[in-house]
Structures are given as C-alpha cells and as structure tokens.
C-alpha cells in the first residue's frame, strides 16, 4: 500500500475512481440470504424527466449517511433505487419534441406515441441516476426499478383489480382539477398556487317579484353562466326574508333559488355568494347538500360550451371580458375591486386549472385510511419529528376519495373494458376479449391511465417483487426508514401506508424521517425567477461531493430549514482539506510503522494519549446516538469539533515532541495512538465523507480486515480504558496553554518570541499535573522559562488569566513597551470606531432601511455587530495595558 498522499486533495481525481470501484465490486448490493439483521430504505423515486436539485441532494445525502452507517454497524442494507415514469411531465417532454417537428401525439396515434416515449426514456431519461451517483449515493444499483417496468406494471394491475373487486375502486361524475391545456385531471399536488393580482367583481342579481338586487362578489365572473343558486347565511338578518325566493340570473335569464347555508361567510363581500356547483369545489359540496342542478359551461379546452348561451365557443378569458362588459351595459355591475388571489396552475405547463365536472375513477380511501391512522397511533410507524404526526392525522381524518384517472397516454392504462351491448364494465388481470357479464366481444378498453401516485404508492413492496413472495420481501419488508420531504407526507407517504397495510398486512416502514427545505442564505425559497437557485452539480464540481454532503448534514437540524450559501460550502471544503493535511502529517510520521506489531496496551500512555482516546470514545458515542435520533447536524457538529479542534489542533501538535524526539519507545507509542485515532476517525467520518475517507484509509500502512472502509466496523466507543484523572490533568494543561496563548494575542507578542510564564497553583495536585506536562506548555505556548508553585509571588507588572485553579501570570518587564502598546491600541480603536459610527449612521437612516434589500441590511447589521465586538475587545485590552503603568 502507498504511505503518502499528494500535497493537495483533488476531489475530481478521487470521487469517480472510488465510486466505480464500489459499484463494480458490488459493495452496495444487498444479499437477501444474509443472516445479518436487515436495514432497508426505498428511495423516493425521482421523476424520469428530472435533474438533480437541492431537495434531491439533501434527501439522498441523508439516506446515504444512514445506509453507510448501518452497513458499518453489521446490517445487511438494501437501499432500493428507481425512477418514476412521471406521466404528465414525461408526456409533455415528448409532446414538445413532436411540436418541434410540427406534429402532435394524435398524428402518431396512441401506440406509436407510447413507443416514442419509451424511446425517449432509453435515450435521455433517468439522467438523475448518474447525478445521484456523483453525490456518492450507495443504492443497490443492480436492483434499479422503474414504475413502468414489467414487474411493477404487474403489481399495479393486481392492486387495481383487487381494490375494484373489494368495492374500493369506482367511477363517478364529480368535480376535479382540470388542465385545459394537458386535457387531464390533476391531483392537488400537481396544482401549484401562485399569488396573482386580480379583481373582485360585484354583480347585481335581480330578486324576482321586487325591485331589489342581491349583490354577489366573484373572482371568476364568467362562471355565473353556470350558477344554480345564490346562498346566504341563515343567521344573516339582512337576508332572512329572501330565503326561499328566487333571483333572475343575468344574461341567461334563468330563475335560481336563494338558499341558506352555514358555510357562507357573512363578512365576505355582501354576505351573499353565487353558487356554481360544476365549477367550484366548495359550491360542489353545497350543490350536493341542497340538491342543486350541476351545469357544466366549459369544454375540455376551457371554452364555453352550449350551456353558456350567447358566449358559446368563446375562450374562458374572452368570455370573462364579454360577460363583464354586458353586465356593465345592463347596469348590473356594482363595482370592481383589486383583489390578490392564490391561483392554481398546472405544475407542468403553468396553465390556470379549472374545476371541472368529469367522470373519473376513484379509490374509496376511508377504510384504508382508518388502518393507516391506527398504525401510527399504535406506534407501528413512528414519524420524526413528532409534530408531523398532527399533520398526518389532520389529513387522514379529513381524507377525500382519491381521483386516480388521468386523460393522457403515458402511464399504466386502466384495465377496464366497457361493453357497448350491455353497458357493464369488465376489470381483469388479463386483457379482456369479451364482456364478463353478457359475453359480447363488442368491448373497448378505458383510454385513461392511472395517476402516477398510484404506482408509487406500491413502491416499498412492488420494487421487491410483489405480488410474488420473494426472498427480498421476506428479508427487507417492512422497510426500516423512509426519508422524505414534508410536502409529500400525504400524497405519497400516507398512500404507501394505506397500500402496504392493505396488500402486505404490515406497515411499509417502521420510521418516517421528515426533513426540511433547502433555502438560500437569506431563508428564501430557491426559484429560477428569483435567480437564487444553487445547482448541486456545480457545487460538486467546485467544492467536491464530500464538502457538499458535510454542509447539508451540518445544517440539517430537525424541523428547521437549511439556509445554504457557497461560503458555507467553502468552509466545509476547508474542513476536508484540514483532515487531508492532518492525514498527510500522520502518514509522513508513520513511515515503516506496522500497526499489527503494536497495541495500545503495550505502552504506558501519556496524558495527551489518554485525553485524545477519551475524546474519541465520547465522540463515537455522540455520533451513534445522533444518527439513531436523526440528528444529522449533531453528528456533523461532534465530528467537526473532534477532527478540527481536538485531533488536528491539539493532538497532532502534542504528538510532535514524541514523534520527532530520540526516544524510540515514545515515538512508537505516539505512532500507535496517532494511527489508531486517525483510522478510527476516518471510519467515524465515512458515512458523511465517503470519498476522502476511502482515499486516506487505503493509504494507511498495514493490512486491515476489510477491503474498503465502507465494510469496516463503525466505532461505537473507545479502543481501551483510560484514566479519567489523567484526562482531567491533560485538560488543565490545555486550559493553561490557551490562557497563555490568549495573553500573547492580547499583547500582540510575535509568534516566534519565547516568553517567561509564572503559574500560581492553588493545589499541589495542580503543581504535579503541570510539572508532568510542562514540556507540552513550553512547546505549544512558546514558553522559555516556567515557574510552577503553590502561592507563587506575583511579578509587579504582569498580564493575568485564570485556568482552572491555576493563575497564569506573564511578566511584562522587557516583554512589551507599555506606551507603545497603548499608542497602537488607541490607533486601532480609532479606526474601528469609524466603522461603528459609519454603520450606525447608515442603519439609522429610515429611508435607507425602508428601501434596501433584506440581504443588504442583514450584511450591514452583521458588519456593525462585528465592529462593535472588536471595539469592545480592543477597549478591554487598552484597560489592561493602562493598568500596568
């Protein structure tokens, strides 16, 4: 094995090399025959059209950390990968290609179009898989699945047929989200809401048999053509005398009733609302309660149909303009207000969606939801953080039947056939050739496909081979954990719960960890329109995957969004470089060292040795506890602190005297401890920093049981027992060294200048501890002469700090010129005071504060705070110096 590392760490030269080795060797592959305890995770399948974004990067980094950690703790780990066929998104991609050829899908016909989509998928789809690999995702790539592959298609069909046979799938004509451009129903998740400036039109409806008008307010005046009632609150004194009477609907002269319903908000508009059951979700429910007529006024493209009277054939916004103009001409437009409204848009084509009456397929989810609620209440599945359980319950207790049909061609075609002779529906596992009721061959298959979420709801068990009872299912189902974002807790997680309990008689996962969003440095949601999107692949190119992964882990505090900036990623690149440089130092001092020939027990360990071994043991315990509890930021914090501040800053320095000295026994002892701690530290860091740790680990001297660090054991504690008193003595020495360094810094003593130090101890035990470690003090604090005693006489002029029960005194005679130091500090204070005054004045300017962007204000406030803190330190130093006169 090589025993040295290049001077600088170059991620690009390391990452692809090791990932290829791991994958080709099958290091990620799960063995269902293994007798090890299992740990399994299914990847939230990214869309086959997708490219890696920050949400994917966070989600998959956290999963990879868990999987690598569990492999190292002796588990057989299955991390199941795959992609979702993304019905609407993928169809849109291919339709755009056809449009560039001046064609549409109807020119090809259904079969040829589906062939074209498969061709696109083979050539261009799934690039996100390779992007996940660049992050280091250690999925079992040999098992990669696709929601339209043969096995998953069989599972989808089986589930549909069984649910239909159980009476849980049915057809009904009701209101759904409709995209007039894509010509399909949409789930709530496929509708994105955007706040837009609009209007609130106040319309006058004449009350029949009087000269009175009811004024209704609406954001969609064109839908009045489909009104079938006006509703008021039964407690509204203004309208009690009108309930039961009728109004004459303007423009179409249809007589409609005035009804009473508690849903009506007396404070909104005039307190009277128009009811359009076929074009508003709330009105739909009211229409059912009051047995109103449902009048659909639009066709599937959003154009007014024959029910719209004189507006027949007009596009919906053209009709809006004309309806408003005609009402105004008839004196029936009371007023128009400006009104901001959250408008629903199709998540793919951005067309404004239309609530639309349509006959669709539904899953009756009530019985399924009941079992899914019980599973969480009973602790079969635990949701972390726990506050998301409340959201889960709220959704599940108020769940509506699930619309599962989509009017597109790409997807799982619904296995239902309509008989044109008897009108019955045949649903079957195999393609039907005749009607199951009358035997007629005059049947036609449903043209709709299933909602993409239908197939992904089966993901935890369909990917493992269900409906076949495979070894993978027996070993790895239910899965151990699901890592996902809160935005799909209901749309995906809840549906997987329902389907898993229904078809596997068990929950699909034991725990669900809900992570937060990745935002920009100012807490803003990343979006292309804001120009604040950070591309994960650009970050990996510039800083390396390890630094990026560590940043995501370090900021993944439970329940708190991640504020990400390139500066923070750059800081963790420095951390990776710090580890690299410390490892280079270690390897240069381990030349000829054979770890198999020595053990820690062979030596009388120094205080420094025992201290670092104790700190390693505590850090390993912290890391394991934090990972068990999904406290990713805590594990990153513990490992960062130990690596940088204890191993690199302290132990590496403390070991130099023995490594560079003439005592061969001391050198061998220091080499043994240095090797042991570094090798163990690499294993602790590996789940977060897979690439750099493998590269360094492979360069260590000697042979190890595993061929890869990812197959080595994860440390759970220390390497040997240590003397706690020795650890305490070492910590006292370190406090003394820090105190001396602080005084040197305050007095601006040149780094190379050796100084005299007096240590007044309050106990003989402290004297003994310091005498035993005085070589450390002299070396690390640049001390030439050191006096140690209980009740030591204090110099007349000295700078003082306290470390434990030791008073640290640095005589100033001959060390500094008090007048010169006073002058220097006064100049520095005057300079910093200018900065404080400048930013104070700037931030006191009300006009500036009112108009400056938030990020500018935040930056300036930070500069003011830093300047004020620096000023305070300088003033305290001046007081100390002045007191020495």
UniProtKB/TrEMBL annotation:
Domain Aminoacyl-tRNA synthetase class Ia: 17-565
Localization in the cell: Cytoplasm
Keyword terms: Aminoacyl-tRNA synthetase, ATP-binding, Coiled coil, Cytoplasm, Ligase, Nucleotide-binding, Protein biosynthesis
Annotated residues for binding of ATP: 528
Span(s) of short sequence motif 'HIGH' region: 46-56
Motif ('KMSKS' region): 525-529
Keyword match Cytoplasm: yes
Single biological process term from Gene Ontology: valyl-tRNA aminoacylation
Superkingdom of origin: Bacteria
Domain Valyl-tRNA synthetase tRNA-binding arm, residue spans: 817-881
Entry annotated with the keyword Transcription regulation: no
Primary localisation category: cytoplasm
EC numbers for this chain: 6.1.1.9
One example GO MF annotation: ATP binding
Entries under InterPro entries matching the protein: aa-tRNA-synth_I_CS, aa-tRNA-synth_Ia, Anticodon_Ia_Val, M/V/L/I-tRNA-synth_anticd-bd, Rossmann-like_a/b/a_fold, tRNA-bd_arm, tRNAsynth_Ia_anticodon-bd, Val-tRNA_synth_C_sf
Occurrences of domain Methionyl/Valyl/Leucyl/Isoleucyl-tRNA synthetase anticodon-binding (ranges): 609-757
Catalytic function, reaction form: tRNA(Val) + L-valine + ATP = L-valyl-tRNA(Val) + AMP + diphosphate
Entry GO terms, CC: cytosol
Coiled coil regions, renumbered to chain: 815-884
Domain description: ValRS has two distinct active sites: one for aminoacylation and one for editing. The misactivated threonine is translocated from the active site to the editing site.
HAMAP family cross-referenced by the UniProt entry: Val_tRNA_synth_type1
Subunit and interaction comment: Monomer.
Family matches, as PANTHER family: VALINE--TRNA LIGASE, CHLOROPLASTIC_MITOCHONDRIAL 2, VALYL-TRNA SYNTHETASES
Recorded family membership: Belongs to the class-I aminoacyl-tRNA synthetase family. ValS type 1 subfamily.
Function: Catalyzes the attachment of valine to tRNA(Val). As ValRS can inadvertently accommodate and process structurally similar amino acids such as threonine, to avoid such errors, it has a 'posttransfer' editing activity that hydrolyzes mischarged Thr-tRNA(Val) in a tRNA-dependent manner.
Name of the protein: Valine--tRNA ligase
Source organism of this protein record: Malonomonas rubra DSM 5091
Encoding gene per record: valS
